[in-house]
Design brief:
Layout (H helix, E strand, L loop, with lengths): L3 H4 L5 E6 L6 H14 L4 E5 H9 L7 H6 L1 H18 L4 E5 L5 H13 L3 E8 L3 H14 L8 H16 L15 E5 L4 E5 L4 H12 L7 E5 L4 H5 L10 H18 L6 E4 L3 H7 L5 E4 L16 H7 L1 H9 L12 H17 L3 E5 L1 H12 L15 E7 L4 E7 L37 E2 L1
Parallel strand pairs: 1-3, 1-4, 2-3, 4-5, 7-10, 8-9, 8-10, 12-13
Antiparallel strand pairs: 5-6, 7-11, 11-12
Helix pairs in contact: 3-5, 7-8, 13-14, 15-16
The structure holds 2,6-di-O-phosphono-beta-D-fructofuranose.
Amino acid sequence: MPNYTNNIQDSKICVILIGLPARGKTLIAQKVVRYLSWLSIKAKSFSYDDYRRVVYGKSNELTLKDRYEECYRWVETAVADMIEWFEEEKGIVGVLDGSNHSESQRDKIEEICRKHDIKPLFLESWFDKPELITNNILDVNSNSPDYSAIDPEEARKDIEDRIELYKKDYTTLDTSTDADKTFVKMINIHQSIIINKIDTYLQSRIVYYLMNFHIKPRTIWLSRHGESMYNLEGKIGGDADLSQRGLKYAQKLPEMIQKLVGPDEQLTVWISTLKRTYQTSQYLPYKKLQWKALDELDAGICDGMTYEEIERQYPEDFKARDENKYLYRYRGGESYKDVVTRLEPVIMELERQENILIITHQAVLRCIYAYFMNVPQEESPWMSIPLHTVIKLEPMAYDTIVSRIKADIPAVSTYKEKGTSQLGESTDSSSSKTRNIITSAKVHSL
Ligand SMILES: O=P(O)(O)OC[C@H]1O[C@@](CO)(OP(=O)(O)O)[C@@H](O)[C@@H]1O
């Protein structure tokens, strides 16, 4: 299993965004940081707008001209903070989210990076499609804190004025004049992408990611398989069949999904290679695809045991897993971190696709959910992903909207709370063991 963190130990990268206002720079910066953080690569975005707001308040509290002429001040602070972060927090990828439109400003940043042994990667978002620009202006208009209390028409005018002002000394990247620079130029997001002088593994990972994601509206549906015989018995792993209630969920799923998705919408169903996900998908009238990478976390020597048996036979392992569930690797099996690594191609393909329903397992769904919802690693293995519930994810420009739809078919809870003994030794009366607890999610039912 490749370990990205070890492979990239000695390379530090500064992604320097370039582009006029309303070119999707913040969206790109946030996506790159979220993707790298999910892969345990320490990444952080330094947004010039955030720095400017701290010093000068919202954009309307500063004249356009001042904002333009004074910008070097907050750019300097952002770059200095980024360097400190690289050094003190062992950062790997810093992202400078701002227009960086003039060559002289870019040269200065490049020089600082080289002095600190940080490789600069320029990333330009260049648009020439008027409809794309209009959409982005509307997006900035409704999402930026600068415009939250301003009339939308006034906000639109401010953004357009800023675009015109920044155009004055904007220079776009070019393979002849910037041949010695490492850069990616995205034209109209993905219409075409120019790549120049990419020479490290990590740079190529970032570029590959940039080439794959799209920004069209779509929905990702997630569900665990129906309740399995192993779930009923409190056993983990294995390749058990569905229980009677699990089968009921499989039978209800087509009606539920068709109602949610709409009759004319296209959908592809992704399942694992384990029987319980296939059986759950069997009545769905959509194209299906099996992924080995979607198989449940491998519990190694504990496969087929209950949590209680694990605690009795391997008390140290039981404790170690509770202490660091993300990194704990079952003997002969996997950790959550290992699952994330093997899920990377799934995420990459998900970024390229439109509507997808994924029917998979508790641990795998936690990892996928964590990617979209930016959940920190120490929390993700403890998230509640109940059985017989569909999760709807709608990725938007700046965040993801999530809702849960319960099938109203009872199922056991397979959730084990942190710090709870399965041997009846818990002192915490609110904590639950894992068996025969009917799932009750705070969601609407179908
Ligand atoms: O990491 P924890 O919380 O143990 O959850 C993972 C476990 O969930 C289970 C159920 O207990 O998954 P599944 O969705 O496949 O039924 C186990 O097979 C698996 O080991």
